[in-house]
Amino acid sequence: MKRKLLAASSVACLMLCGAAFAADLTVGFSQIGSESGWRAAETTVTQQQAKERGIDLKFADAQQKQENQIKAVRGFIAQGVDAILIAPVVATGWDEVLTEAKDAEIPVILLDRQIDAPEDLYLTAVTSDQVYEGKVAGEWLVKEIGDQACKVVELQGTTGSSPAINRKKGFEEAIAAKSNITIARSQTGDFTRTKGKEVMESFIKAENGGKDICAVYAHNDDMAVGAIQAIKEAGLKPGTDIKVVSIDAVPDIFLAMAEGEANATVELTPNMAGPAFDVLEKFKADGTVPPKWIQTESKLFTQADDPKGVYESKKDLGY
Amino acid sequence: MIRARHLPFLATVLIFVLAYALCVLQFPNMLSFRVLGNLLTDNAFLGIAAVGMTFVILSGGIDLSMGSVIAFTSVLVAVLVRAGVHPALAFALALMVSTGFGALMGLTIHALKMPAFVVTLAGMFLARGAAFLLSTDSVPISHDFIKLLKGLFIRLPDKGKLSFLAILMLLAFVIGVILAHRTRFGANVYAIGGSEQSAELMGVPLRKTMVQLYAFSGFMAGLAGLAYTLYTSAGYSLATVGVELDAIAAVVVGGTLLTGGSGLVLGTLFGVLIQGLIQTYIVFDGTLSSWWTKIVIGLLLFAFIVLQRLILLVSERRAAIRSAAGG
After folding, report:
1. So what's the architecture of B4-319 in CATH?
2. Interchain CB contact of A65 with B (< 8 Å)
3. According to CATH, what is the number of the domain A2-122+271-288?
4. Contact residues, chain B, for A97 at CB < 8 Å
5. B135 CB near a chain A CB, below 8 Å?
6. Fewer CB within 10 Å: N-end or C-end of chain A?
């Protein structure tokens, strides 16, 4: 009986001590920079998440330079932080500094991107699955269209970039079984609004003034917003005459959805830090080792999901 | 006796010591061999480039091609090693290319009587473009020889390391100091920086010195490129954009006169360390925007330019008084 009590109390202490320890974690975060709205939102959300959990977040913006990231990580190690988050600017060149972190017994969690380094050098990587994002978009279209014949035009991301390749692949997989849905045209819009608009204009010209196009699939929302412009200028109704589906879920696409001009978007969540902090707190409390890859949710938003409300909640994140 | 022209150097050292003391006051962790070792390792490629830049600025010139040459060298080495060339050979080749490139720029500057600014600007675009031509991706390097170099270090107390890169940078500074103060080449560079016409009248071989000077700067840029390659174990054509400007800032904050003729190579080391210190402080603080590095460096640069101007004015006035008294 006495032993049981002792064991119970030590377990209780362990849990309590763990909780108390989690409360004053210091975490260093080496961010790439603020090159895009999404990146800025990721920073804001990370800071919010840290604040909610009472984590002391040390933030370092690398201004797109790997040397600054390495310096920051070394600085975090020298300071003796409890964990380090890195959103790596490139995949290479991390072995040495991560080994230093490992020697100092500081767990490292990668956010948003993977690296070319041995897996034992980091605790886990929290990223989205880009192929899956494309798949979710494709599956939405399959469901939306049913058995009608449908010619899709595709606005690709920057040629050769991994999101462009993967989002294309996922979408193709989703529609592969449906012979009524075909990708009629596919070109790069470079992830930008202006290029998205230009390319959509040429698609419309090539496809009988846009009358033959049933849907446009854009690899990101910015190109979709450009495409919506082009569709409107051609005298057609985006969202009804030509369906618009894209990926990222930036605030502007929700405005378009509220107007009925866009149909669906798949969210690339800026909240990579939330899952990272979850596993970190568990790891610190009782040593639970997470899987090497944590996939973030790729949530589908349609016009039925209160686009106005989502816009309001997203607009102040820094997008 | 402290000479007026050494004042900027002393000011730099004083600023560094004071700033470090202030940092330590706030974050006692910063006073460790680990942080000092990191400071040297993390800024090694900048320091090496800055040695070359010091000479160029001492001569009254400028080398804007440095950042691009660093990137080009690192990509060249990475591509060569990927193709199966031994890293040591790749290093030698890369250094030859960068030195030759520098010499060519020096020759152009002299032969065409063009400002160094324009010629090295062209060099900057050329080198960056060539780097992209070799590879647009980041090319990782993995070779036992590279691992061996990266594994070399001298252990310092409390988990500090004086890494191979740090030693390489310190060595570059030693060579720089010897070249500047103990050789004919160094004396010629100072003379050209003081006044090109007087230097020529005194018999300084302008053409030879210019070629040597920019070849040296190209060599140092190449060496910085090798340091960067070791640092990141990769060659990346988009890397080190604007490093030449950081190097110029380090040189000026280190007490070298931007118009040439006066300054100490050792001052540049402290200029580099001050930049590194600000970055370290920002990481330790963890709430400041990293752009404060640029703001503080900007303010320091401005302060030093004013300081140098004042010293120049005062010494000119003294000279005037002396000559008036003598005449």
Report:
1. Orthogonal Bundle (1.10)
2. yes
3. 3.40.50.2300
4. none
5. no
6. N
